[in-house]
Design a protein that fits this description.
Layout: H1 2-20, E1 24-34, E2 38-47, E3 54-57, E4 69-75, E5 81-84, E6 95-97, E7 103-106, E8 111-119, E9 123-124, E10 130-140, E11 146-148, E12 154-155, E13 158-161, E14 165-169
Parallel strand pairs: 3-12, 6-11
Antiparallel strand pairs: 1-2, 2-8, 3-7, 4-5, 4-10, 5-9, 10-13, 10-14
């Protein structure tokens, strides 16, 4: 009986850990526009906590250089993978200090959206005519890499993949 109570207590603590700390439970990607030279997408992150405001790092072009975000395109039919990488070199960072210019506060049960414009010349290998499935992934605070903040807010850490979006390259 005592062992059963301990088990229930551990299970309850485990479940509470998911509800008491800000977390991104959903990363949604939308295709806004596609031209001969670029692909414009919108990514929306949702804080699923009901109580905690979440400090969320806002990715930029440089974020691809430290693998904090990735965009992959999979050619339909061949499953050949193409990756967006706008960098000339890979930065070796062990942390990013979050501040007002590179992050945003997401209140409980709220969302934050940001747009990215992807230069097709920076997709490797280069795309050819056909259909592709595109997916975004966030890698926030993995391995030796850390997101740090001096604020009282919970910093989002973890990995999250978006839904697939289909595009036709002409």
């Amino acid at each position: 009986m005592k062992l059963l109570n301990i088990f229930y207590s551990i299970a309850l603590l485990y479940l509470l850990s998911f509800t008491c700390h800000g977390q991104i439970n959903h990363l949604k990607m939308e295709l806004l526009a596609e031209s001969q030279d670029s692909i414009k997408i919108k990514l929306t992150s949702t804080n699923t906590s009901r109580t905690d405001t979440l400090l969320f790092y806002t990715p930029t072009e440089e974020s691809f250089c430290v693998t904090v975000i990735s965009i992959d395109l999979i050619e339909v039919g061949t499953n050949k993978e193409h990756s967006y990488f706008p960098c000339t070199e890979i930065a070796d960072l062990d942390h990013i200090l979050l501040n007002k210019t590179n992050s945003v506060l997401i209140p409980p049960s709220d969302s934050f959206s940001f747009d990215l414009s992807l230069d097709k010349k920076r997709i490797s290998p280069h795309l050819k005519k056909g259909r592709y499935r595109m997916k975004a992934s966030l890698y926030y605070g993995y391995g030796n890499f850390k997101l740090e903040s001096a604020t009282k807010y919970t910093v989002y850490r973890g990995t999250k993949a978006s839904n697939d979006v289909s595009i036709n390259v002409k």
